[in-house]
Design brief:
Blueprint: H1 3-31, H2 36-48, E1 51-52, H3 53-59, H4 64-76, E2 80-84, E3 92-96, H5 98-119, H6 124-143
Antiparallel strand pairs: 1-3, 2-3
Length: 144
């Protein structure tokens, strides 16, 4: 197989696998009434604590412009709140509310179980190898 054909075939397999696993895990997010981006924001705040919008966007690999709409919707639903910085009034930190904490605690447990179940088709060594390969590929993409 040529280098070009191998690269395209490998890419197709990677994308199909990612879409398949994402589809099976995102059902649990949808059942909680969350989009993938909303889940990502809540999960970041749940595990990292309060963050500024820019840091959330970087953590979940979304644009800061997209984050404004996602956070607006989460705030409307009472799941997060913006806290203005006293030193720089242009700067907000995003915090989980009690309702947000309750929702992400339940939703994360369901998503985590789905991910573990999906990854169980791979051995521990295969999961470690896949993780290493994905990290290498992701870091190389960042350099180009």
């Amino acid at each position: 197989m040529s280098t070009k054909k191998l690269a395209l075939t490998t890419y197709t397999k990677l994308m199909r696998a990612a879409e398949s696993v994402t589809g099976r895990t995102s059902r649990h997010m949808a059942e909680a009434g969350l989009t993938i981006s909303q889940f990502g924001v809540l999960e970041a705040l749940y595990h990292k604590g309060p963050l500024c919008q820019r840091d959330i966007a970087a953590k979940i690999l979304k644009s800061s412009g997209n984050m404004t709409l996602v956070i607006d919707n989460l705030e409307k639903n009472g799941l997060v709140r913006r806290v203005r910085d006293t030193g720089d009034r242009r700067f907000y930190t995003i915090h989980l509310t009690d309702d947000g904490t309750d929702l992400i605690t339940r939703a994360f447990a369901a998503v985590e179980s789905a991910i573990v179940a999906n990854m169980a088709v791979l051995t521990r060594v295969e999961q470690e190898t896949l993780g290493t390969i994905c990290k290498k590929l992701g870091l190389e993409v960042c350099r180009t």
